[in-house]
């Protein structure tokens, strides 16, 4: 299953990726205008569910979960921002793995790095930014 188009490899391989992540982006550079409906969540739910009922339940859970995350991100000053969605997702995964909550400073640093890494020509459309946001949350 392919959910989002994979960008071409960064010039320089891993060092190129590290270089992208070392350059903080400008705040809000990954902000998008939401389409009003999920662009990736339904595809994820349909790929994970086996029956129509499971797919419907997963779509509802994912949509409600994404809405709750967006409410909190908006309160924190990052509404509809792809980098903030990815920061949430990565921090959540790291927290589940390590049993620790990332500090505010670490989360803010990650957000700035992701803003820089995602501020590319491939991420200029609202639809692409919304896909990345949905993948993160």
Word description of this protein:
61% of the residues lie in helices and 0% in strands. It has 137 residues and is mainly α. The relative contact order is 0.22. The N terminus is likely disordered.
Short description:
With 137 residues, the chain is mainly alpha-helical. It has 6 helices and no strands. The protein has helices at residues 13-21, 41-48, 52-75, 82-98, 104-118, 126-136.
Instruction: Briefly note the structural class of the backbone.
Output: mainly alpha
Strand content: under 5%
Work out the helicity level: 55-70%
Q: Would you count the extended β strands for me?
A: 0
Tally of DSSP helical segments: 6
Biggest β-sheet description: none
List SSEs in N-to-C order.
HHHHHH
Topology at a glance:
Elements: H1 13-21, H2 41-48, H3 52-75, H4 82-98, H5 104-118, H6 126-136
Helix pairs in contact: 2-3, 4-5, 4-6
Give me some keywords for this one:
single chain; 61% helix; disordered N terminus
């Amino acid at each position: 299953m392919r959910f989002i188009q994979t960008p071409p490899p960064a010039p320089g391989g891993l060092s190129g990726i590290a270089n992208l992540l070392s350059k903080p982006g400008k705040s809000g550079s990954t902000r998008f205008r939401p389409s009003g409906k999920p662009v990736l969540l339904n595809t994820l739910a349909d790929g994970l569910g086996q029956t129509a009922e499971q797919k419907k339940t997963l779509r509802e859970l994912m949509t409600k979960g994404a809405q709750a995350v967006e409410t909190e991100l908006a309160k924190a000053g990052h509404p509809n921002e792809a980098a903030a969605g990815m920061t949430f997702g990565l921090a959540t995964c790291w927290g589940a793995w390590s049993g620790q909550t990332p500090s505010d400073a670490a989360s803010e640093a990650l957000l700035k790095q992701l803003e820089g890494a995602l501020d590319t020509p491939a991420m200029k459309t609202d639809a692409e930014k919304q896909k990345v946001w949905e993948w993160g949350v």
